[in-house]
Structures are given as structure tokens and as C-alpha cells.
Amino acid sequence: MKNLIKTFLMLVAVLCLPFSASAKDSIMMATTTSTQDSGLLDYIKPIFEKDTGVELKWVSVGTGKALEIGRAGDADVLLVHAPAAEKKFVAEGYGVDRRLVMYNDFIFVGPKNDPAKVKGLSTTETLKRLSADKAKFISRGDDSGTHKKELDLWKKAELTTPDKEDWYVSLGQGMMAVLRFAAEKDAYTFTDRGTWIAFEDVQKPNPLTILVEGDKSLRNQYSVIMVNPEKHPKVKKEAAQKFIDWWVSPAAQKAIADYKLKGKQLFFPNAGEKD
């Protein structure tokens, strides 16, 4: 009887192992819609899990919302792209070990006939022209990294954000939805290049085209941050550190560089740089 009980207890312990390991070796990431919509996360997930043994789960929202999730302790790590807001998040004690990992750039897209005639202008000239012409413009309006960048550009152009104007539509949705709406309304918008490339792949026909790019003010930097385990003890510190260390590793940086859509590189690794 004792042997039977011992065998039963051993069997229960063995059956419980996979569930315990899964609970221990998983991590929750709050990240942006651009990493989801571009296909990067689905590409990175199996590589990350193979290299680290940690299961990667995520919620894809705007950067502002991702930082809120981090503040509440409802994620272990963040992958976001709003440097000023990220630095504030860390300075307030909500995040630690912020590392730059990759970048792409922002672009202005709009109707192919370009009624406001902004093609080839600088960022500041573009915003002034759109404002003067009251050209229909679709903003994300969702406190995402892209939205924060757009607001910053209006400010740097010494223009008041036209959120009360009829020609300026604050949609409050993710980038892919904004691009679809801009295409439907024959309007201008501001987007990260990665999501634009993914949009081009699915939007047939596509009435929009790139009109403004290459301005040095349009760089789009992404960083990883660990949610501070001292503020939120439920953060999986060991797995989170593996996550942070992996993104800046040569293997991860190569994976980022190798990711392409329709032969186009979407993100450019830059671990080790400072901002």
C-alpha cells in the first residue's frame, strides 16, 4: 500500500511539472501596434523562445497604453518607441534597464495626386502646408509612440495641433486602421515605415504613396525596458532579464536585421547606442 501511494504521488509530481515550468518560464510583454502589425513579433517569438527557453506572450497597444500597463505592474517587460515618455517612466521608478535595440523611421503618406503639394518638403514645411491648405489629415490620436511623435512635430513647427479643426481627424485607433481609413478618405497621415510596408502588402489597390521621408527628425527609436521588480514584486525578474539581454545580443540583432517583408528591411538594429 505504501509503495502504491508513493507511486501515485510521484506520478502527480511528474504530471504537474509541465504546468510549473510553463508558469515559471513565461513572460508578458506590453508593446506597440507597429511591432505587431509589421509581423516582427510573430517572426521573433520562436527565435527568442528557442534561444532563451522563455515563452513570450504580449499585448499590442499604443506606447502610452503600454507604459500604463507597466506602471500598473501588469507586464514584465516593454518594447516601445517614445524615448521621452520612456525616460520619464524610468525616472519615476517604474522601469529599469532601458536599452536601445532598433529603429526605423516615420514617413508622411497621402493621395498620389498630392493635392497639398507636400512631396519632397521638410517635415516643418509639410505640416505648415497641410495646415494652410486644410488638407484632410488622419491622426492616430491614441497616445501611441507615433501619435506622441506627431504632436512633437507640430510643436517643433511652431504650430498648434489642429485637433479642433474639421480637416484633422483624431481616430483613436492603431496604425493599420488609420492607414485603411486614410486610404478610404483619400487623406494624408503620419506612419512608421514598418507598418506602411505591411499595409502596402495587403492594400490592393493602394491609393496612398510616400510623400515625405528622410528628414532627420523622423527617426523612430525602439527600446526594451524591464518593469521595476522592486515596485512590482510579481514581475518575473529572471525571465525579464533574459528578455532584455537577448534583445541586445548579436543573435537578436542579426534576427532584427534579417527580417524583411517583400524584400524590404523593416527595422535596423542599434543595440549599444545611447540617446
UniProtKB/TrEMBL annotation:
Signal peptide: 1-23
Superkingdom of the source species: Bacteria
InterPro entries referenced in this protein's UniProt entry, alphabetically: ABC-Tungstate_binding, PBP_domain
Keyword Phosphoprotein tagged: no
Domain PBP: from-to ranges: 28-250
Keywords noted in UniProt: Signal
Keyword presence, Ribonucleoprotein: no
Database matches in Pfam families: PBP_like_2 (PF12849)
Name of the featured protein: Tungstate transport system substrate-binding protein
